[in-house]
Each structure stands twice: as structure tokens, then as C-alpha cells.
Design a protein that fits this description.
Elements (H helix, E strand, L loop, with lengths): L12 H7 L3 H27 L3 H17 L3 H15 L5 H31 L2
């Protein structure tokens, strides 16, 4: 059954172009996302709790590339806003928390879709 991607912040066009028909590359890339993204989100959350703006900005900066690779442009934009806000040195904490909550919700939905895509793609290997 095809996956409905209408409710996710996910565009795999770039991944598919780079994969050039390699299902193995797609599966490995999704595994990379699953290994890197939850710890990055946790790093941002922990640093936010500690009001360590430099660490929040650094973790957000690192995460943007992965989100862009998977076409998660809304998530990427929110993470960029978090990064830029923290670089000012005195961000609005409630705004950061709200943006992080949005990112986490989008990524949770995207993760479900990526797991389905991975399962279907891996079945073809």
C-alpha cells in the first residue's frame, strides 16, 4: 500500500535523486536519520532546560542539514529560528519551547512515515 505523505513535513526528492535507484542507500539514510535526530532533539531540549544558549544553537545548527536532506523544510525553518534566537544570547524561552514542541511533533509524524518507507524499501532488497 502506498504511503500517504500529505500530512508530513517530508519531501524525499533529494534523497531519491542522490540514491539514484539504490534502495539500500535509502534504507541506510533513514537509519542515519533515526540514529542522529532523536539525540539531537534531546541535546536541544537538555540545553534549553539549562538555558545554555550556545549549546542549543550548536545542536540546532547541526540538525538543520539532516532535516534539509529529508526535505523537512518546516522543521528545518523552526530549528533555524531556534538557532538564530539563541545566538542573540537572550531568547524568549517560552517561544523556544513552543518551537521545539512543534519540531518534535513534526519529526514524530515524519518518523512514522520514514519507518513505513524503510520497511517497504527494505522488503524490495
Amino acid at each position: 500500500m502506498p504511503i500517504d505523505l500529505t500530512n508530513v513535513d517530508l519531501d524525499l526528492t533529494l534523497l531519491q535523486e542522490i540514491a539514484d535507484g539504490s534502495d539500500e542507500f535509502i534504507v541506510e539514510s533513514i537509519d542515519m536519520f533515526l540514529q542522529q535526530t532523536p539525540p539531537s532533539l534531546q541535546d536541544i531540549s537538555n540545553a534549553l532546560d539549562e538555558m545554555d544558549w550556545a549549546t542549543v544553537a550548536a545542536a540546532a545548527h547541526k540538525m538543520k542539514a539532516t532535516l534539509g536532506f529529508f526535505g523537512m523544510l518546516n522543521s528545518q525553518a523552526l530549528v533555524q529560528q531556534i538557532e538564530l534566537s539563541c545566538k542573540t544570547g537572550s531568547p524568549d524561552v517560552l517561544d523556544l519551547i513552543a518551537k521545539l514542541d512543534q519540531v518534535q511533533a513534526l519529526i514524530a509524524t515524519n518518523t512514522v512515515a520514514l519507518l513505513q518507507i524503510k520497511e517497504e524499501t527494505a522488503a524490495k532488497l
